[in-house]
Design a protein that fits this description.
This protein is mainly alpha-helical and 148 residues long. It is built from 6 helices and 3 strands; from the N terminus they run ααβααββαα.
Protein backbone atom coordinates (compact mmCIF):
# COMPACT_ATOMS: atom_id res chain seq x y z
CA UNK A 1 0.00 0.00 0.00
CA UNK A 2 1.42 3.38 -1.03
CA UNK A 3 1.57 6.15 1.53
CA UNK A 4 -0.25 9.34 0.65
CA UNK A 5 2.10 12.25 1.28
CA UNK A 6 0.22 15.49 0.72
CA UNK A 7 3.31 17.51 -0.22
CA UNK A 8 3.91 15.01 -3.05
CA UNK A 9 0.25 14.63 -4.05
CA UNK A 10 -0.36 16.75 -7.15
CA UNK A 11 -4.09 17.43 -6.56
CA UNK A 12 -3.28 18.76 -3.08
CA UNK A 13 -0.37 20.89 -4.34
CA UNK A 14 -2.52 22.36 -7.12
CA UNK A 15 -5.31 23.18 -4.68
CA UNK A 16 -2.96 24.81 -2.16
CA UNK A 17 -1.22 26.81 -4.89
CA UNK A 18 -4.56 27.91 -6.38
CA UNK A 19 -5.80 29.04 -2.97
CA UNK A 20 -2.61 31.00 -2.28
CA UNK A 21 -2.71 32.68 -5.69
CA UNK A 22 -6.41 33.51 -5.25
CA UNK A 23 -5.65 35.13 -1.90
CA UNK A 24 -2.96 37.30 -3.48
CA UNK A 25 -5.16 38.41 -6.38
CA UNK A 26 -8.09 38.98 -4.00
CA UNK A 27 -6.25 42.05 -2.71
CA UNK A 28 -7.11 43.80 -5.96
CA UNK A 29 -10.84 43.12 -6.05
CA UNK A 30 -11.63 43.00 -2.32
CA UNK A 31 -10.56 46.64 -2.12
CA UNK A 32 -13.39 47.30 -4.59
CA UNK A 33 -15.88 45.41 -2.39
CA UNK A 34 -16.03 42.32 -4.59
CA UNK A 35 -16.05 38.68 -3.53
CA UNK A 36 -13.98 36.06 -5.38
CA UNK A 37 -16.84 34.63 -7.44
CA UNK A 38 -18.16 38.10 -8.24
CA UNK A 39 -14.75 39.11 -9.60
CA UNK A 40 -14.48 35.91 -11.64
CA UNK A 41 -17.89 36.51 -13.15
CA UNK A 42 -17.03 40.14 -13.97
CA UNK A 43 -13.69 39.15 -15.48
CA UNK A 44 -15.32 36.53 -17.72
CA UNK A 45 -18.00 38.96 -18.87
CA UNK A 46 -15.39 41.65 -19.54
CA UNK A 47 -13.42 39.24 -21.70
CA UNK A 48 -16.21 37.29 -23.39
CA UNK A 49 -19.10 39.75 -23.45
CA UNK A 50 -22.71 38.75 -22.80
CA UNK A 51 -23.03 35.12 -21.68
CA UNK A 52 -25.64 32.81 -20.25
CA UNK A 53 -25.22 31.69 -16.67
CA UNK A 54 -24.66 28.15 -17.99
CA UNK A 55 -21.78 29.38 -20.17
CA UNK A 56 -20.23 31.07 -17.13
CA UNK A 57 -20.53 27.82 -15.16
CA UNK A 58 -18.68 26.00 -17.96
CA UNK A 59 -16.03 28.72 -18.31
CA UNK A 60 -15.27 29.16 -14.59
CA UNK A 61 -15.96 25.62 -13.30
CA UNK A 62 -18.06 27.23 -10.55
CA UNK A 63 -21.32 25.52 -9.63
CA UNK A 64 -24.68 26.98 -10.75
CA UNK A 65 -25.57 28.24 -7.28
CA UNK A 66 -22.27 30.12 -6.92
CA UNK A 67 -22.71 31.78 -10.32
CA UNK A 68 -26.32 32.67 -9.54
CA UNK A 69 -25.43 34.19 -6.16
CA UNK A 70 -22.55 36.18 -7.64
CA UNK A 71 -24.80 37.42 -10.44
CA UNK A 72 -27.51 38.46 -7.97
CA UNK A 73 -24.99 40.32 -5.83
CA UNK A 74 -23.52 42.13 -8.82
CA UNK A 75 -26.97 42.93 -10.21
CA UNK A 76 -28.10 44.41 -6.88
CA UNK A 77 -25.13 46.82 -7.05
CA UNK A 78 -25.79 47.75 -10.65
CA UNK A 79 -22.64 46.05 -11.99
CA UNK A 80 -24.32 43.31 -14.04
CA UNK A 81 -27.57 43.16 -15.97
CA UNK A 82 -29.45 39.85 -16.04
CA UNK A 83 -32.04 39.35 -18.76
CA UNK A 84 -34.08 36.42 -19.96
CA UNK A 85 -32.56 34.72 -22.98
CA UNK A 86 -34.92 35.26 -25.93
CA UNK A 87 -33.93 31.85 -27.33
CA UNK A 88 -34.52 30.01 -24.02
CA UNK A 89 -36.97 31.42 -21.48
CA UNK A 90 -35.40 29.26 -18.72
CA UNK A 91 -31.98 30.81 -19.21
CA UNK A 92 -30.59 34.15 -18.07
CA UNK A 93 -28.00 36.13 -20.01
CA UNK A 94 -25.57 38.35 -18.15
CA UNK A 95 -23.70 41.42 -19.26
CA UNK A 96 -21.63 44.06 -17.50
CA UNK A 97 -23.33 47.42 -17.09
CA UNK A 98 -21.36 50.59 -17.84
CA UNK A 99 -20.71 50.86 -14.08
CA UNK A 100 -19.49 47.25 -14.05
CA UNK A 101 -17.19 47.93 -17.00
CA UNK A 102 -15.71 50.95 -15.22
CA UNK A 103 -15.12 48.95 -12.05
CA UNK A 104 -13.51 46.13 -14.02
CA UNK A 105 -11.27 48.65 -15.79
CA UNK A 106 -10.22 50.00 -12.39
CA UNK A 107 -9.55 46.60 -10.77
CA UNK A 108 -7.99 44.69 -13.69
CA UNK A 109 -4.68 46.63 -13.74
CA UNK A 110 -4.17 45.94 -10.03
CA UNK A 111 -4.92 42.23 -10.54
CA UNK A 112 -2.49 42.12 -13.48
CA UNK A 113 0.19 43.85 -11.43
CA UNK A 114 -0.19 41.33 -8.61
CA UNK A 115 -0.08 38.45 -11.12
CA UNK A 116 3.14 39.86 -12.61
CA UNK A 117 4.70 40.18 -9.18
CA UNK A 118 3.61 36.63 -8.34
CA UNK A 119 5.74 35.14 -11.13
CA UNK A 120 8.72 37.44 -10.64
CA UNK A 121 11.95 35.49 -10.97
CA UNK A 122 10.41 32.63 -12.94
CA UNK A 123 12.04 32.13 -16.32
CA UNK A 124 9.56 32.98 -19.11
CA UNK A 125 10.07 29.57 -20.75
CA UNK A 126 9.35 27.83 -17.43
CA UNK A 127 6.19 29.90 -17.10
CA UNK A 128 5.04 28.96 -20.62
CA UNK A 129 5.78 25.29 -19.82
CA UNK A 130 3.71 25.54 -16.63
CA UNK A 131 0.82 27.09 -18.54
CA UNK A 132 0.95 24.30 -21.15
CA UNK A 133 1.01 21.64 -18.41
CA UNK A 134 -1.95 23.21 -16.61
CA UNK A 135 -3.95 23.17 -19.85
CA UNK A 136 -3.12 19.47 -20.30
CA UNK A 137 -4.03 18.61 -16.70
CA UNK A 138 -7.34 20.48 -17.00
CA UNK A 139 -8.12 18.70 -20.27
CA UNK A 140 -7.36 15.31 -18.73
CA UNK A 141 -9.56 16.11 -15.73
CA UNK A 142 -12.39 17.06 -18.11
CA UNK A 143 -11.99 13.74 -19.95
CA UNK A 144 -12.07 11.86 -16.65
CA UNK A 145 -15.20 13.73 -15.56
CA UNK A 146 -16.92 12.83 -18.82
CA UNK A 147 -16.43 9.11 -18.21
CA UNK A 148 -19.36 7.17 -16.74
Amino acid sequence: MADLRLDEFLPYRLSVAANAVSQVIARAYEAAGLKTNEWRLMAVLAEDGELSQQAIVRRTKLDKVSVSRAAQGLESRGLVRRAQDPADARSLRLTLTPTGKRLHAKVAPAALSLATELVEGIDPEELRALERLLVRIEAQAERMLARP
